[in-house]
């Protein structure tokens, strides 16, 4: 266990950032035992951090009570070996409530997701995230996507806010990201973290690395940690051959399959976890399960990915 600040722990590129799915039992209730096993397996496989109850973990579908229990179990399963960051979202009052629940459950930090439904101006967004950051002692990473898109000037103000340590980008506008990185670097002393938070972030990580963004989320790590780790090592070591082989033979086919259904960024990942032997249940509404044919195609993609690893050995 380490007492180093969260930013320092996250900035060590020891492995992918793990976004576990949330496990449900046959009756649809949260299955904490299976969830604990899932998180523990990810930590033991080499994850650099656990991001519990975030997008892949179906934050939108959890009650506050379920959320608190899952975060607590993730903290217990991690055993201090890696930091645990919990999601927080909806309107400001609820986001504050989730932030405080995460702190009470022992989380090391927060991923602040977009506010619910409304499309707010920059002033309102800044106020929202500042209130979330002020509500607890936990460091906050702000998630840019959907209805929470920031100008470089707003990110400068976020970076100046006590408690806000980074920005996760789920938008994919590289021109905007370059201007954000440049503006913060020019105007705010100290280190501010950036994360590639696009679905299947490995597919775009070469482009993000060119901007200096080395941290990225890995949903693939949920069901194929060996593939995710091999890709992460290859990126870190400049092994272009392995990177290209995995992009062409595994990640691109997976992304193309993911694009076949709305919500597959979560549902297909959960199906992958089940295919690999851990019954984490189905997704909750309004998400839906992949078709039988898509699950079959997923199994073939996963098999192909592991075959590529064997060829590289």
Please tell me how large the radius of gyration is. 18 Å
Beta-strand content bin:
5-15%
User: Would you tell me the overall average pLDDT?
Assistant: 96
> What would you call the structural class?
alpha/beta
Order of helices and strands: HEHEHEHEHEHEHEHEHHHH
Instruction: Enumerate how many helices there are, as a single number.
Output: 12
Order of adjacent strands in the largest pleated sheet: 1-2-3-4-5-6-7-8
Helix percent band = 40-55%
Largest sheet: 8 strands, parallel, barrel
Overall geometric form:
globular
Oligomer: single chain
Give the N-terminus to C-terminus distance in angstroms: 33 Å
Q: Using DSSP, what is the number of strands?
A: 8
Low-confidence stretches: none
Descriptive notes:
- This protein is 49% helix and 11% strand.
- The protein is an alpha/beta fold.
- It has an eight-stranded parallel beta barrel with strand order 1-2-3-4-5-6-7-8, surrounded by five helices.
- Strand 2 (49-52), helix 3 and strand 3 (84-88) form a beta-alpha-beta unit.
- Helix 6 (152-159) crosses helix 7 and helix 9 (225-237) packs across helix 10.
- The longest helix is centred in the last third of the chain and has 21 residues, at 292-312.
- It is globular and about 50 Å long.
- The two termini are 33 Å apart.
- The mean pLDDT is 96.
